[in-house]
């Protein structure tokens, strides 16, 4: 029932948990990430937002309470707290903090992962081939 499992090996997932979208930490986190949309796309990163009363998947599409509960259970994300969780393409937790995380920190962590290094190398060699 955990919808994040459907993204395994295709997408990295950033999960924001907050009591509501008006939470100060959440609002700051969202503002910071809105500046990093290009970097998110390059890194195959999608966002899930879990609030206490409603839940959103990628592109702000509503998900069910059952799906949200499955996500919370799978990644040990308590309700009512501000938490940022990064899930790698392999489906495991790469980062979990109860504080704001800068796009630089998120992107740096992703870029240090072996799978991301392979992606960058294959994109770089594709770019070279395309220019010849």
Written overview of the protein:
- 23% of the residues are buried.
- The N and C termini lie far apart (47 Å).
- The chain is globular and about 45 Å long.
- It contains five helices and five strands; from the N terminus they run βααββαββαα.
- It has 132 residues and is an alpha+beta fold.
In short:
This protein has 132 residues and is of the alpha+beta class.
What is the approximate shape?
globular
Number of DSSP strand runs: 5
What does the radius of gyration come to?
Answer: 15 Å
Q: What order do the strands of the largest sheet run in, or round the barrel if closed?
A: 3-2-1-4-5
Write the layout of secondary structure elements.
Blueprint: E1 12-17, H1 24-34, H2 37-42, E2 45-50, E3 55-56, H3 65-75, E4 83-87, E5 93-97, H4 103-111, H5 114-131
Parallel strand pairs: 1-2
Antiparallel strand pairs: 1-4, 2-3, 4-5
Q: What attributes does this structure have?
A:
42% helix; single chain; disordered C terminus; five-stranded mixed sheet; alpha+beta; 132 residues; 18% strand
């Amino acid at each position: 029932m955990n919808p994040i499992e459907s993204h395994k090996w295709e997408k990295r997932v950033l999960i924001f948990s907050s009591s509501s979208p008006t939470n100060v930490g959440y609002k700051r986190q969202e503002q910071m990430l809105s500046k990093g949309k290009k970097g998110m796309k390059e890194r195959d990163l999608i966002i899930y937002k879990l609030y206490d009363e409603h839940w959103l998947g990628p592109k702000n599409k509503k998900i069910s309470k059952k799906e949200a509960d499955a996500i919370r259970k799978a990644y040990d994300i308590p309700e009512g707290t501000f938490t940022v969780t990064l899930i790698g393409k392999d489906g495991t937790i790469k980062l979990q903090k109860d504080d704001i995380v800068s796009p630089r920190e998120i992107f740096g962590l992703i870029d240090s992962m072996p799978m991301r290094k392979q992606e960058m190398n294959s994109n770089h060699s594709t770019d070279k081939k395309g220019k010849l």
